[in-house]
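The data layer described in this paper is built around a simple, fixed record for each protein. Such a record has a labelled line for the sequence and another for the backbone structure tokens. For reference, a complete record is included directly beneath this paragraph.
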Amino acid sequence: MGDIQATMAANVWKVEVEEKDVVKAGDIVVILESMKMEIPIEAEQDGVVTAVETAEGDFVQEGQVLLTISEES
């Protein structure tokens, strides 16, 4: 299981996945926005999204968990 964390304090501009979606390493799962720049957050492993911990419009802190991915079974 792997948590995907925010790389900086930012607004959540777009959540690209939902729970139960299958993702591959490198897929963009969340896009953050800070100082009018878009920061894509990628899946670090192949798997299934088991939890989405944030929503579009939320403000997140660096290190805050955005979503969780588990290995496909």
About this structure: The mean pLDDT is 95.
